[in-house]
Amino acid sequence: MKKCKSCRMDIDDKAKKCPHCQADQRIWFVRHPIITGIIAIILISMVASSGNSGNKSTNATGNNSTTSSETQASPSNQPAERQVVGTAKTIGAGTFTGGTDVAVGLYDVTPGAGQSGNFIMSGADSYNEILGSAGAAGGVLKVRVKVSGGDSIKISGLSKVTFTPVTTPFVKAYGPVKLYAGTFTVGEDIAAGRYMVTPGTGDSGNFIVSGADSYNEILGGDTKYGGVPSVSVSLTNGDEITISGLSTVNFAVAQ
């Protein structure tokens, strides 16, 4: 026996309605099946929506992580590569203008075979070399030059001078390097670090470093006239190295 939910009279345990007051004894969900079905559908939809949101959040986090990794590994964060600037050009004796006769850029300049003469640049960039006959009277076999718009280029005693754009990759590893006459940049043509610098056999000329570090020496030649057989230097990225009158300059890793 059980009590009626309405009148509280004793009724049969299995009775669906009270025989005294006719009150329905079934639970609310059984008495309202349509509403119950609607509520069930709403609840299922809410649960499914919550699950999808969680997956999207996880995916978004994963995507953000991937994007972050890709950003860290993107080429823009990698060491820069040399960009070739300039156009190959061959000229002879005379006066020429940077940006007009020779395109603005970075070049290795060489004389014609067996030739020797004067190569002079002035303006934003300055060079004064005997081009050809390496080792003789300060002559060099080639010179690294930067040509800017408006630079004056004067060549005498040479019927053929070739400007070749520099294509060699940046030197990123600290180690021994050989340079020559012209201008070079630490972090591009030689890695930063400490070096023992010596001239090539029989060479003598000027060795200058400017920037965060500063050196100015006559490298090679008679010590009576201020020449030194070697110089110990510390180089920092961005330093500019200027070499004149020397066909070869050896940079050995300092111990």
Describe this structure in words.
The protein has 255 residues and is an alpha+beta fold. The protein has two helices and 20 strands. It folds into three domains: 1-61; 81-169, Sandwich (Jelly Rolls); 170-255, Jelly Rolls, CATH 2.60.120. Strands 4-10-6-7-8 form a five-stranded mixed β-sheet, with no helix packed on it. A five-stranded mixed β-sheet has the order 13-19-15-16-17, with no helix packed on it.
Topology:
Blueprint: E1 2-3, E2 10-11, H1 28-31, H2 33-73, E3 89-91, E4 94-97, E5 105-111, E6 117-122, E7 127-131, E8 139-140, E9 143-147, E10 152-156, E11 161-165, E12 177-179, E13 182-185, E14 193-199, E15 205-210, E16 215-219, E17 227-228, E18 231-235, E19 240-244, E20 249-253
Count of structural domains? 3
Taking all Cα atoms into account, the compactness measure Rg is: 42 Å
Give, in spatial order, the strands making up the sheet with the most strands.
4-10-6-7-8
How many separate helices? Answer: 2
- Largest sheet properties: 5 strands, mixed
β-strand percent reads 25-35%
Report the count of strand segments.
Answer: 20
Structural class: alpha+beta
Average per-residue pLDDT, rounded, comes to 84
**Termini Cα gap:** 104 Å
Order of helices and strands: EEHHEEEEEEEEEEEEEEEEEE
CATH class category name of the largest domain: Mainly Beta
CATH architecture of the largest domain: Sandwich
> CATH topology of the largest domain, what is it called?
Jelly Rolls
Residue stretches low in confidence (pLDDT < 50, at least 5 long) are 64-78
Shape: rod-shaped
